[in-house]
Amino acid sequence: MQNTPRGMRLHIGIFGRRNVGKSSIINRLTEQDISLVSEIAGTTTDPVEKAMELPPLGPVLFVDTAGIDDEGSLGEKRIEKTKKIFDRTDLAIIVSENPQWGSFEQALASEFNKRKIPIIPVINKADLLDINNPGTDSAVVSAKENTGIEDLKQKIIGTAPEEFLSPPAIVSDLVPPGELAVLVVPIDLEAPKGRLILPQVQTIRDLLDNDSMVMVVKERELKEGLGRLKKSPALVVTDSQAFLKVSADVPNGVKLTSFSILFARLKGELNGMIQGTRSIENLKSGDKVLICESCTHHAIGDDIGRVKIPRWLTQYTGAKLDFEVYAGHDFPENIGDYSLIVHCGACMTNRREVLSRIAKANAANVPITNYGLAIAYSLGIFERAIEPFC
User: Fold this and answer.
1) Residue closest to 288 by CA, chosen among 246, 325, 329
2) How far apart are CA 323 and CA 92, in angstroms?
3) What pLDDT digit, counting tens, does each position of 88-106 carry?
4) Are 373 and 241 in contact (CB under 8 A)?
5) Which CATH number describes the domain made up of 180-261?
């Protein structure tokens, strides 16, 4: 767990037509042969990713993509894969061979502008061009001659969104320095062997960086652990699956929430998801509910997304609901067919992808919530779980 998770890295997508040198540029930026380079157009088929450190910006993820002008039935599929990268791009590099953009470059720029994603225009193959005034926003490079790459890196650093220069807090703004947070971490069949899951690790680090104190307990030891304290903790954070027992053991005067709800705020839009959660009241038999997981894993018998949440929502609503599960970067096109979207905490993907999904849900007028919020609502402890943020 020494490496920065991909979900916390600045995602830099490299886009353009076939054979403009996108793969050569990512190889120069990373100083490694990450992408296959060839004079044959369409060499890059699937997106190619490379994580690295870019001082002083920090951890980034470069994503090389297939040409946006690909042709044929396979080309159309490659273009669709490239377009999926739009949803998780924080900063877009548009590569061309000419200072004058054509229709493909203009279409890319329009799409990123619509999404409010910053753009860096790059003119490649400078060794073959005579460029006098490329414009202040453009980087002029020759991947072949390895020129202009350092200037491109500086433009990336200067164009990065503000949130990557000053990362938001996970929980430290809720627990002042010197105060105590109690984290409830069940060790059950879904807990990874020999380690904690990513949200728990990141929450602990965020608190320690803030000079806050942390006590970590399993749900069975929570009540005794709280009894040993001379002063009540500033906050108790639990795994959402243990919400009911933890809520019963934590005194009413102590604030309580879950890791998943913290990540709804970190990776998405908490207020919008709170409103989306309330739409659970409107669910009726026959409604379709979409369960979204940002990671792929082997589902155990009592899987949270496939078994527990459907069971709790069914018990709460008394309705016969139709649940569908999408995992990883897959996301359905027919969003309007669903009455509710329940997203995971998104610890394995970046905020941009979650915001893209929220935007699609809003455009289709479909309410969206997340695991922790939906569980708290189904168990009747919703208002308590969101009280720390009100």
Assistant:
1) 325
2) 35
3) 999 999 999 988 899 999 9
4) no
5) 3.40.50.11420
